[in-house]
Structures are given as C-alpha cells and as structure tokens.
From TrEMBL:
Its main location: cytoplasm. It is found in: Cytoplasm. Residues 2-140 form the Aspartate/ornithine carbamoyltransferase carbamoyl-P binding domain. GO terms for biological process: citrulline biosynthetic process; L-arginine biosynthetic process via ornithine. GO terms for molecular function: amino acid binding; ornithine carbamoyltransferase activity. This is Ornithine carbamoyltransferase. The keyword Transport does not apply. The keyword Transferase applies. Carbamoyl phosphate binds at residues 100, 127-130, 260-261, 288. GO terms for cellular component: cytoplasm. NCBIfam families: orni_carb_tr, PRK00779.1, PRK14805.1. Keywords: Cytoplasm, Transferase. Its EC number is 2.1.3.3.
Length: 301
C-alpha cells in the first residue's frame, strides 16, 4: 500500500490484514503507543466534519504522532494555489496527508504530486475509511464476514460505493436498494460485479424494496448529500418508501442497523431503529478511529 484512495485498490489479503490490525490496535492500544513516534500528519478538509476529524486527530495522538488540521477558509483546494503545489509543499514537512474533499480528482492529484501517503477521508466518489470501520464492526459480530448479507437502502452515494467494493472483495453478499435515478455509478457497479465474481461475492441491485429478504444488517445514509440544494420535500416524496423502520427490519430478519451518521430520525430511518437494541451506529463511529489507525500504521510503519 502506498495510499488509501479507494477500497477498490486493495486485495482481499490487504483488506483482511487491515481489519485484523485494527482489532489488534483496538484490543492492545499500549502496544502501538509509539507507532507514529516522530511522524506528522496533515489533514486537509474542504468539508465540515465531526467523526472524521476527531477520530483521526485523537487516533494519531494515541499512536504517538502529531496532527495538523487545515480547513479551507478560502474555498476548495486549488483556488488559492494549485493542488499540485499543496501536495509537493506538504510533502516537504509531513509524513502523510489526510484529505476530505468535494472532488475525488483532488485526492488523486494530491497522491500524484505528493511524495507521502495520501488517505481519502471522503470524496464525492468514495468514503473508504467509513467502509473499513463498517466491515470492522461487522467482523466483530460475525466470525466470517464473507457469509454476511448486507443491505444498503437509500441513495447510491460515496458510502454505498465503498461498501460495495468492500463486500465484493471480502466475498460477501450485498443488496443495494435505491429509487430509480439514484443507483450507484455505472462504472462502480461494473467494477464491483467483476470483483464479486473474482472473490465469490454477490451484488444485487433493485428499486423494489419489497423483494428484499433474509438480511443480516441494513445500512442507510442521509438521503441528500452535503451541498445538494434539492428541496427536501422533493427528496422525501421519492425516498420515503425506502425508510428503514422496525417493520422492514422484521420483514427481512435483519438483526443489525447501520448508519454512517449524521442521522435524521424519522427521515431515512425511524428513531426506534436508530436508537434500538440492534443499532451499531456508535460501534461504527468508534471503529472509525481503530480502522484509520490500522491504515496509518500500515502506511507509515
């Protein structure tokens, strides 16, 4: 591994190794207290954040490293000076770059022009750190993740893309249920189907939520991405049939509910489900730090 730009770039062994290392770091944090001793990580954020910023900052500190946060008060990366100059300059001082950007091309440009590892902390196409935390969470509940049946219900966004890649590489079965016009990107679907065939996984796409059955966990996300100006009334009219509620959970036999947060109760999912006994949302949030620490240790050790 030179970077973590997308889960699709990982082999099955690399993905499994990251999950195993994350479990070790979580169980024995003292063993990794100096893993990043003398290392500095710059975080470039174009978008606001709670979990990503805090989990990286505190996680780097727990590994003995130093974190520097840079927001973009002057707008997106590349406006004040070229992204290539950002990357080459930061590479003079920092040991790694963590970037949360609007465009995935910005992440790619940082990796192309920098000389240090780049970690994608979210872009318009992918959210690999979230998916790593999600599969870490599932691996804590299921001994063999390849046997897991995971359903994603809602908008086929960057989180869905990363989950699809992860499930395919791990050999799991993933069902993606979206309203017409909101399916994952065609090129992602094509890639995932090839990976699923290679690793023994399965991808099922449908807009008919009534056909979904026999799931271990249901995952959903907000129906409208940050910065989208579509009126909420218009979004709700299209997405409300895809709300995750106790009736849907019972119908498909799903024991667990997952959400990357922030969650809007009584919108994409009911409060009963979000705050219910089978909700894994806080496990996922905590595991962001452990999964990301595994990535940092792998890239910088």
């Amino acid at each position: 591994m030179k970077h973590l730009l997308s889960i699709k770039e990982l082999s099955q062994s690399q993905l499994l190794d990251l999950l195993a290392l994350a479990k070790k770091i979580k169980a024995n944090p003292a063993d990794y207290r100096r893993a990043l001793d003398g290392k500095s990580v710059v975080m470039l954020f174009e978008k606001p954040s709670l979990r990503t910023r805090v989990s990286f900052d505190i996680g780097i500190n727990k590994l003995g490293g130093h974190c520097l946060y840079l927001d973009q008060q002057n707008g997106a990366l590349g406006k004040r000076e070229p992204v290539s100059d950002f990357a080459s300059n930061l590479s003079c001082w920092a040991d790694a770059i963590v970037a949360r950007t609007y465009l995935h091309s910005t992440i790619e440009e940082l990796a192309e022009h920098g000389t240090v590892p780049v970690i994608n902390a979210l872009s318009d196409l992918y959210h690999p750190c979230q998916a790593l935390a999600d599969f870490l969470t599932l691996s804590e509940k299921f001994e063999d993740v390849s046997k897991v049946k995971l359903a994603y219900v809602g908008d086929g966004n960057n989180v869905a893309h990363s989950l699809m890649y992860g499930a395919a590489i791990l050999g799991a079965t993933m069902t993606v249920v979206c309203p017409e016009g909101h399916f994952p990107a065609d090129e992602v679907v094509a890639d995932v189907k090839q990976l699923a065939e290679q690793y023994g996984g399965q991808l099922i796409l449908t807009s008919d939520i009534d056909t979904m059955d026999n799931q271990d966990a249901i995952y959903t996300d907000t129906w409208i991405s940050m910065g989208d100006k579509t009126p909420m009334a218009e979004i709700e009219a299209k997405f409300m049939p895809y709300q995750v509620n106790s009736q849907l959970m019972a119908k498909v036999g799903a024991k667990y509910f997952m959400h990357c947060l922030p969650a809007y109760r009584e919108v994409e999912a009911t409060a009963e489900v979000i705050d219910g006994e089978g909700s894994l949302i806080l496990d996922q949030a905590e595991n962001r730090m452990h999964a990301q620490n595994a990535v940092l240790v792998t890239l910088l050790s």
